[in-house]
Amino acid sequence: MVIAAIAICSSGVDAAAAQRSYRVRGAEGCQLGSADCRLLTVYLPQSSALTTSPNAEVAPQHFTLTPEQRARAEAWARIGDVTYVADLLLAIAINLIFWLRRFGVALRNLARRVSCRLIVQCLVVAPLFVAATVLVNLPLDYYAGYVLERRFGLSTQTLASWTGDWGKTLALSIVASVVLLWVFYAVVRRSPRHWWFYFWLATIPLALFVMFIEPWVVEPLFYRFTPLADTQPALVDRIETMLGHAGLNVPPSRIFLMNASSKTTELNAYVSGVGASKRVVVWDTTLRALTPDETLLVLGHETGHYVLYHIPKEFALDECVLLAIFYLGYRMFRAMIRRFGARTGLESEGDLASLPLVILILTVLAFLASPALNGISRHYEHQADQYGLEVAYGVVPDPNAAAARAEQILGVIDLAQPDPSALKVFWLYTHPPVEDRIRFENDYHPWSEGRPLEFVHRK
Which of 16, 85, 374, 432 is the most buried (most CB within 10 A)? Predict the structure, then answer.
């Protein structure tokens, strides 16, 4: 991963704090573009959704798959596990080799010949380091992000489009890496003993800035967004009615339709941005595969992230985990410099040549922190499921059935693993498994039991 664990300070692991999603394949994480963080997924014609449930009016009690569907989902999960491990091991191997073979030293020496100023040196080191790392990762990225997605019918993207997204991601990675590298080494040189704390403080405004501009600057590089009211005014009216019953207001100007079908067959919706840039986005593939009632439940889930302030709440909790990562990273980094620095050409902790070692350490720590970060994410996703049911009650005739049907359809189309192990869910899943979500969506109906709603207080 480029800038691996350092990058989590600006976007969160799996971009969880920056983007809350309805997505059912919880283990894959965020994938923006097609390199380290792809947003690419794919479109399935509406007719395919008709095969996911024998009777669209009957709510599934469990995540039910035909033998063929189960075999495809399990095969996709197995390949996903392999590519996940391969990506992690490759990231560790690349940075270990770059460190031991003194690639960082060569870049530092080159940068010193260009200038003695840190910012100029970062402008030399970061692009070359990122490019080298991404090029080594390219075969795996191509296989996992293009070949396998097309083989399993999840991608309709052409090679030219995929390559274009890969190039955009590379450019974004370089820009982010220059800034992070400069801030990191400036802080380390100024405060060698306390950089872990001051760098953590510095990443907070950087991360908030990235989250703020993402909907306006980053996402439009990969997809086209239009106000949902332009093409689905009736659906927007129902959304407003649904939220109005709860005394809430999400302006129609903040609900967008994304042309996911240009690249994907999968279904999704999400919330991204902070403050003035915060918005709800639904994929056009979702509208084509689900009924209006089912779509309302998906959007109810997403507006739950919006009105319950999940993005800032999760951002705050993730930052606490990040502080622990940076502190442990500081202790390990200092010990490694003292023991191996002279033998590997590193002059001090503030030496730009130490970049591969820094990323190696933080990559391992970020992996070990995955259960905490993903557990936080699953908690808020479950809350959003609950909110979606509560806000839809009284607007959708049977919100429990609509939510369960939507989850079933999304699970089938997105090739969700039917029976993930408890360890896999604990370590990797950003969302509860589909089976758990369907069971909850069938069982949660306090209105029929005379109990008050937890999140929605109707006028």
Answer: 16
